[in-house]
Amino acid sequence: MRLIRRLLGVSQARGVSQARGVSGGVRPPVVPGCIRRCSGGVPPGVPLGVPLAHDDYNSSTSSSSPPIVISHGMLGSRSNWTSLAKQIHKTTGRRVVTVDARNHGESPHTEDMDYHSMAADLSLLITSLHLGPVTLVGHSMGGRTSMHLALTSPSILHSLVVVDVSPVNQEFDATSTSQWNMEHFFHCLKAVTFDQDLGLSAARKDADRQLAERIRDPGLRAWLLMNLRQDPVTREVGWRINLAAIHSAFLRAIAVFPEPGGRLYAGPTLFLGGGDSDYIPVHDHGAIQETFPRARFEYIGGAGHWVHSQKPREFMDTLLKFI
Length: 323
Fold this sequence. Notes:
By secondary structure, the protein is of the alpha/beta class.
């Protein structure tokens, strides 16, 4: 069950951005396929990125140090990182960009989803914003996306921070009855029915009531309910995420990290895990360093998978010492 939990990402941090990219507060555009075939001089089959919704903390940037790009975990969004992103920007003076992964938040909905295409999304964002070599910070699924980009396009990275996830694949137990089983989450979310006669607040309470029948943890339900939205045009209440596409991609492409194929990332790398988490087990260190030879490992005591939200001060201290 370790792998399943690694793909989640959550924080209670909320806030207001300083600059927003893509469209905010409207239905995300639908792209018919996440690996769009190229034309012209680009080889067929090479994944092209989609434009990601993002918040850009850049109003008072004074540092010449590389910008920081932060990627959330599965079923999360960039809003999970708002508070920490503001603190990092204020403390370091560095430009900080938080993103919504495809099929999440306000980013485009696509039919397909895998680490190749999600890495291409990050590459497009970095290029479009003229960020140059960046420090990538990725949690869980976002950490694996960041690792894949580091392995396939190392020149656009200055350094890499992977938060509580390993590139080493583990077995997936689809029969587990654990509350953490991702299949359980998907089915719980899909089972929610929305009464369109209710306002957003009442609909949220009703959805929480329905989820409570299968998910006991109120904090976990509150996090999942951050994906609830009301369309500003149609006033329809529903899930903001592209639930069907994420679910379809999960076992096929997201639960398994692509084989490095001999590639390695030789830049500075920090694997930052929770002391109470088993998502970066010590026995993975050797295999990790074969692909990330400059990898360092740090663990924050008293933190589980959501290191950045459970121990934000310690997380910040460790991150800032590295970058």
